[in-house]
Amino acid sequence: MLLNKSIDIPYQQLPFSGQFNVAPLGVFRNELTEQPHRHDHFQIIWITKGKGRHMVDFVWYEVEDDMIFLLRPGQVHQLDCEREGYFLYFTEQFYFTNKNDKETLYDFTSLFDNWHGYGPISTSGNTTESLLGLIQLMSKEKSCAPNCSRGIVKHYLNAFLLLVEREKKRNAAETMMPLTHDARVVQLRRLLEQHYRTEHQVAFYASAFALTPKRLNEITKDTTGRTVTELLHDRIVLESKRSLAFSHKSVKEICYELGFEDPAYFSRFFKNNTGISPQDFRDMMFK
Length: 287
Hints:
The protein contains 11 helices and 8 strands. It is of the alpha+beta class.
């Protein structure tokens, strides 16, 4: 059970000035962090020592030492654990100050993709030391206000993200699930995020790449193990769950907001993808 009553789940706004911050986990702890909530920015939670669990989009993960959770804007999460470590948050606008940055800086957005399934990242010895050093460098530079250099912070952050990406690939290799990358799939994710409420046909997304639906499905299947339709349905189901669990909206209202014209069809769609009806899912959340 996540909550004892249905509420419109809030977005947790940036608690500090600016579009970036790094601090010990203990600094950022209030009633909201102990309840399901979401952010309008990217967040990295690095638990150096911890025991308990962490919920991300309705799935609970056991917390261990030296574990990193990557959160995209809008992801619902809840911390239910003893924890020491650090958190970083930043906006895409902070990282990519202007269009030229896209050509010179690492595109971190692919690191936060979950097409291969969400999961925390475990860090190894040498990398853990390097990540800690970068945390200290970012903290030191940020404390130099008003002379703090955005460029210096971004390059430290860039190095931090690259190390985390390497650890993500190492984790995948150890579980015999190597990650593959295709820039078109990254772009597809962005298109799905923008249009999943209104565009439910593969042809719409394929046209953005001047590809046939069959060819785009082949690309996504090779890279993610999922077809475009499956990725789209996953995203719709996730948003359905968020609205059912954390809002007062009726099933009919949720249906229309997600681009379905027939509530009965939406209910069948939800049950086919989850094994449970929308109303039963909502009731299960608040038993």
